[in-house]
Amino acid sequence: MNNENQNIEYKESWRDEYVKWLCGFANAQGGKLYIGINDKGEVCGVENAHKLSEDIPNKVVSFLGIVADVNVLHKDGKDYIEIDVAPSDVPISYKGKYYFRSGSTLQELNGAALQNFVLRKMGRSWDEVTNDRAALKDIDREAVDYFIRKGIEAERVPEDLRKASTEEVLTSLGLIDDNGGLTNAAVLLFGKNPQRYYPSAVFKIGRFGIDEADLRFQDVIEGNILQMAERVMDVLKAKYLISPVRFEGMQRYEKLELPKEALREILYNALAHKDYTGPDIQMHVYDSSIEIWNEGELPEGYTQETLFASHSSKPRNHKIANVFFKSGFIDTWGRGFQKIRDGFAADGIPMPKVENFCGGVRVTIERTVFVKLSVSGQTGGQTGGLTSGQTGGQTRERVYELIKTNPYITRDELSKVLGISPSAIQKHIDKLKEVRIRRIGGDFGGHWEIIEK
Question: Is 73 helix (H, G, I), strand (E, B) or coil?
């Protein structure tokens, strides 16, 4: 006999409570429950097999409302029973509870997991559900205009959409229901403050030392998820990644340590496929690697090999993925990981590792460029995104960009990020205060304001 797996379960004798296993099979991919076989896959036989074969179908119909195929089989002079259940197109419950077969285990579905399961069975995704608390006044027109501009540039939305009202744009995207209510996707993509309704719709970035206990500095990116990837990229370039300098003749070049378009693709994937009922997206930046994690595992049966080969697209959030596609950010044919593969291969950087981890997807990227420069001493002990060979004017520009990105950043934090002394940071701040920034409030609790005289 085969070992127990996603579609096979063994029991030595029958109990009515085993109907819940059949419920789990029906809610998953279907499966077979064998009565009269032990955990080792050995036939031990069952008494009254023929009577059970008549009773079990009635119990299945009574408890689950489905029909199971029940057969009496024989081996070595012993009778055992095979109960074959097909996958159901609708959610099946047992005594008011929903069960799901995952691998060789039976799970009871509750809370968000149950909600997502029921929606999937109905052919819908969570982002299509109406948010009863949100209204059109919560939508940011600037975000809508950003979408229209990007969509026209990508030639995926018509030019005349520029003249459409906010409500017309959202309706064309299927983000407003028949009663005028906004979907979860509408608020996440275009909301003025999506975090009011979805606290976990944030992107956290942390710079770490040797492990997670050694947090050096961090950023929390909020706002709508349509523009979040670009904001994350700006922060990464300003504080977390390096851009080594090279010269060709008299021409100076600065290239980010990771392929930008491939990195954007990874960010858009995290945003489009995140389970927004779970924790926030988290990025851990170490000297040797970068880890990006989002709640929500890969589609069932998908692995890294599946993703980097030709495969169909299975978005978790249909509406969000559709808007990202029309904005030109992603493709609908599962070609995103091919772009990632090509981008990293062109730069000679090892392919990112993609895996299910702690209920979500983790992408691990090796920082080969940073490691190489660290070994040769060219990063100058930096912990952030300072370009090697930085001049005084360029350092000041970095200070300005960091303040612009995070108005609450302190002098000591600037010092740690840029790898120069607090006194040197103060000199750059003094120069910037003459024309570009001013301080609001004191050293503790205050913040910077951009004035750009």
Answer: strand
Scanning 296-421, the segments in alpha helix (DSSP H) are: 304-308, 318-326, 336-346, 368-376, 392-405, 411-418
pLDDT in tens, 76-117: 899 999 999 999 988 999 999 999 998 888 999 888 778 888
As to burial, measured by CB atoms within 10 angstroms (0-12 exposed, 13-18 middle, 19+ buried), residue 331 is: middle
Average pLDDT of the segment spanning 200-211: 92
User: Using one digit for the tens of pLDDT, what is the confidence trace for 241-291?
Assistant: 988 766 665 566 678 899 999 999 999 999 999 999 889 999 999 999 999
Please give the domain boundaries of the chain with CATH numbers for all domains: 8-122 (3.30.950.30), 203-213+227-309+330-376 (3.30.565), 392-450 (1.10.10.10)
CA count, 13 A, side-chain hemisphere, 411: 14
Question: Which string of DSSP letters, residue by residue, matches 140-197?
Answer: -HHHHHHHHHHHHHTT-S-GGGGGS-HHHHHHHTT-B-TTSPBBHHHHHHHBS-GGGT
CA dist list (Å): 127 to 130, 140, 230, 322: 8, 18, 22, 11
Q: Tell me the C-alpha distance between 269 and 396, whole Å.
A: 34
Question: 1 with 37: CB under 8 angstroms?
Answer: yes
Q: Amino acid identity of 206?
A: G
- Phi, psi for 141 (deg, rounded to 5): -65, -35
Residue 197 sits at the vertex; the CA angle it makes with 194 and 203, to the nearest 5 degrees, is 50
Task: Give the count of alpha carbons within 13 A of 34, CB side only.
Answer: 24
Q: How many CB atoms lie within 10 A of CB 329?
A: 23
pLDDT tens per residue across span 383-411: 443 443 345 677 888 888 888 877 878 88
Contact 280, 200 (CB under 8 A): yes
> What is the C-alpha separation between 7 and 23, in angstroms, rounded?
12
- Whether 168 has a pLDDT exceeding 90, the answer reads yes
Contact 12, 41 (CB under 8 A): no
Residue 115, by phi and psi: left (phi above 0), alpha (psi -120 to 50) or beta?
alpha
Phi-psi region of 39 (alpha: psi -120 to 50; beta: other; left: phi over 0): alpha
Do 316 and 270 contact (CB within 8 A), yes or no?
no
Is the pLDDT reported for residue 182 higher than 90? yes
State what percent of residues in the chain have pLDDT above 90. 56
DSSP helix/strand/coil, 346: helix
